[in-house]
């Protein structure tokens, strides 16, 4: 009964989405307030029904109802409760239901918090949002129904993919989807504005909080996915340029460009055409990522779909929304009025450079990801594009971007002074040069680019702090006055400082881990000692234990440094009999920002076991940087000048007709 109720709720959500996609637009065309307000009520009702549908699927998984195909294929009665819940989105059908539930959630948030928006803009935006929802409801109901019954229910399920039975999967997909789907709001507002033919600085002010919210979630989702792959897959790597990883990186790059472009549009009423295009492209890349993961065209640990015929449906959705929105953009773009002019050397100019470099980097990832797929479709020839291509094309684009990053906040709007900005960055430049000199002396002719890259990272971090010091007038006024000025700074300013510093911190972690990583692959028996990077790891014993739904082999190590015991590590291998699959559970020991990493290979005939041990210097900074960036975004989001929604219109501008 629960499955049928969930299915029926999904059908009702589709019906509401179809109403929401048509009626408000008719109201906007005829200036009928009642019809336009239908968008708000249907968006909230749609959220209610799709929420009930998702709750029904969660209930079926928690109660292990194996009469439902989705539960049978992806659950097991002995599986821990946390993995019964995460198993809901650890498969194709459930993940698509989560996707459309989040889509409805964002539509509901616009309905609740968008009361101060112009009524026609809100009606059109929610209608566009409903177009997207309707397409994905149809996709789920016609090709990926999670509530299908089994005629003769089995007694036990097939269990979830063992690789996905990890706490990281409780966090990674929802965060990633909140980012992916969150950009749909920017897309809907862009298309709605193009339909209405009215785009101004106020539009950017309304859109920027929603874009920032999606960007925060996507940043956290990518970071969490990277860390999950690092410790769960046992390879010791944190980024593999996997096509599905790239699918999440592309909208992040475009979304970052969109955030900065929207600032120029809001402050200077400029870059209208470009900002519209970025809003469309960012969500289009999110849809492309959905196609790559859910269509079955890729084989990846991230990709759940195994039926490529579903890809035809998603491809039609892709063509409809990307093609349709770009056609509307091409039709309307020429009629958009350009905003204020600015000199190349200005804060606007710095943000334009930022956009050019970010979008070029995004295009590089796009080509490297899709070219092999296109070549295989056209010629049948298979090629792989991996790290060497991306390292040689993507990475160099970030060097000028990082060099320019500290200069942007130092330049004035409209017309800036590069010499004055450089003078204010003297301290940051000296800190970078000192760092490079020290590292060159310490490494004694080692990797030549590592000190340069770390010096660049220090320049970015120190440049962010220099901007803060300038705003507080540090060292120019009494300390108490500087602190008072710091407390009075807008949260968006603090957010910018944290976000930019996070980029530099992540770069330090990437360079240190990539350059000075130490690896030891060996076979050990109980009593043997492995030495790596000044640490000694003694294998104490190899034990077997029974888990809830797996059998586990655990190896216990005692870790010493300089003859002093500092801790223990216990990597393991798990064998899931139901799935006839095994996973490697790496053991991690943090030493400051560095880590010891141990994972197991196969047992040997003489009673030993293959062990892979790494020492990864400063590796935790790779993920601390994105956390700091997301924290900076959150601070900006809480700024009273940048709250979700829009400021109440002035009495003199009642012509905008705020929503009721």
Can you offer a commentary on this structure?
This protein is an alpha+beta fold and 660 residues long. It has helices at residues 2-30, 33-62, 69-74, 81-86, 92-113, 119-143, 168-196, 201-232, 243-268, 272-294, 310-332, 347-379, 387-404, 407-410, 418-424, 426-443, 449-472, 479-488, 491-516, 621-637; strands at 518-524, 529-532, 535-546, 551-561, 564-569, 572-576, 581-585, 587-591, 594-603, 609-616. The longest helix has 33 residues, at 347-379. The radius of gyration is 27 Å and the shape is globular. Mean pLDDT is 88; it is low at 299-305 and 644-660.
Sum this structure up briefly.
This protein is of the alpha+beta class. The chain is built from 20 helices and ten strands. β2 and β3 form a beta hairpin.
Which tags fit this structure?
single chain; 660 residues; alpha+beta; four-stranded antiparallel beta sheet; globular; disordered C terminus
Question: What level of helicity do the residues show?
Answer: 55-70%
Strand segment count:
10
Which geometry do the CA atoms define? globular
* Rg calculated over all Cα atoms: 27 Å
What's the end-to-end separation, in Å? 39 Å
The sequence of SSEs as H and E is: HHHHHHHHHHHHHHHHHHHEEEEEEEEEEH
Low-confidence stretches: 299-305, 644-660
Strand content: 5-15%
Output the number of helix runs: 20
Mean pLDDT: 88
Class by alpha and beta content: alpha+beta
Please summarize the sheet with the most strands. 6 strands, antiparallel
Q: How would you summarize the topology of this molecule?
A:
Blueprint: H1 2-30, H2 33-62, H3 69-74, H4 81-86, H5 92-113, H6 119-143, H7 168-196, H8 201-232, H9 243-268, H10 272-294, H11 310-332, H12 347-379, H13 387-404, H14 407-410, H15 418-424, H16 426-443, H17 449-472, H18 479-488, H19 491-516, E1 518-524, E2 529-532, E3 535-546, E4 551-561, E5 564-569, E6 572-576, E7 581-585, E8 587-591, E9 594-603, E10 609-616, H20 621-637
Antiparallel strand pairs: 1-10, 2-3, 3-4, 4-5, 4-6, 6-7, 8-9, 9-10
Helix pairs in contact: 1-2, 1-6, 2-5, 2-6, 5-6, 5-7, 6-7, 6-11, 7-8, 7-9, 7-10, 8-9, 8-20, 9-10, 9-12, 10-11, 12-13, 16-17, 17-18, 17-19, 19-20
